[in-house]
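Hypothesis: this fold can be encoded by more than one sequence.
Test: take the structure tokens below, design a sequence, compare later.
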């Protein structure tokens, strides 16, 4: 949830549960992309409205397949030290 005055923006360095470092970009109050650095490996879960329609790629551009738990919740396996790009 973002304050209405922050229509566009980004953040870097937020560390989420599971030791995933997140970089996020949003425009008009909606996320447009996330970069996720997996610091420990394991399953990354993302909860965001409509995230099941996203595309995820690894650092080499390969598409990463993910499990859809609901329209707003997905999960995918990660490797320690790798980066993943989520495009909404």
């Amino acid at each position: 949830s973002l304050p209405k005055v922050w229509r566009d923006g980004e953040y870097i360095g937020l560390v989420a549960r599971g030791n995933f470092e997140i970089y996020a970009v949003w425009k008009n109050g909606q996320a447009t992309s996330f970069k996720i650095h997996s610091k420990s490996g394991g399953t990354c879960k993302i909860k965001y409205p409509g995230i099941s329609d996203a595309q995820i790629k690894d650092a080499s551009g390969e598409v990463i397949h993910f499990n859809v738990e609901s329209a707003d919740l997905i999960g995918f396996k990660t490797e320690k030290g790798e980066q993943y790009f989520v495009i909404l």
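Residues 5 and 71 are 27 Å apart (CA to CA). Strands lie at 9-16, 20-27, 30-38, 42-47, 55-58, 67-70, 73-78, 83-87.
Hypothesis status: open.
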